[in-house]
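Priority: medium. Attachment 1 of 2:
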């Protein structure tokens, strides 16, 4: 099972990381950058860079890749929005369910999908909606990653001929 799912998760994390960084740069160029927007852009770019590194390490089946990918999926799991904080990240593919309470006390439930990269990380949003959701695909990917046990990478063994030539040259092993 991990022969298909682990590479898929790795590709989605790498693609999401690359497109996320590109979207952040595009937003900074399109808008007039302030000190506050640059700070948030650096934070968001660091998260997208971490996603790319996690995906690459998972692709190489390193133990760090599994751990980092668990963190990346954990970052994507909650979708929270209120007047005080909006926190949503997705890398690659995102399908999530949510519930929202609007200003007129109406309740809405829905399902939303995002592709490539998507982020909202905002503080103090005037008249913002209140809601919570969770990423379905992150739940599935977390279960797959928890079952996945990468093998530790064995150190490269030295060729016997190389060792013998070093000994003849006066080196000690």
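Attachment 2 of 2:
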């Amino acid at each position: 099972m991990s022969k298909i799912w682990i590479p898929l998760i790795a590709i989605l994390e790498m693609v999401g990381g690359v497109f996320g960084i590109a979207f952040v740069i595009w937003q900074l160029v399109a808008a007039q950058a302030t000190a506050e927007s640059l700070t948030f852009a650096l934070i968001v770019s660091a998260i997208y860079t971490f996603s790319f590194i996690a995906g690459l390490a998972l692709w190489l089946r390193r133990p760090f890749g599994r751990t980092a990918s668990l963190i990346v999926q954990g970052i994507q799991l909650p979708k929270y929005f209120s007047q005080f904080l909006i926190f949503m990240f997705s890398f690659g593919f995102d399908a999530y369910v949510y519930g929202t309470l609007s200003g007129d006390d109406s309740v809405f439930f829905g399902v939303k999908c995002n592709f490539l990269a998507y982020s909202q990380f905002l503080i103090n949003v005037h008249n913002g909606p209140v809601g919570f959701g969770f990423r379905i695909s992150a739940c599935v990917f977390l279960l797959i990653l928890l079952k996945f046990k990468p093998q530790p990478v064995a150190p490269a063994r030295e060729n016997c001929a190389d060792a013998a030539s070093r000994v003849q040259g006066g080196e000690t092993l």
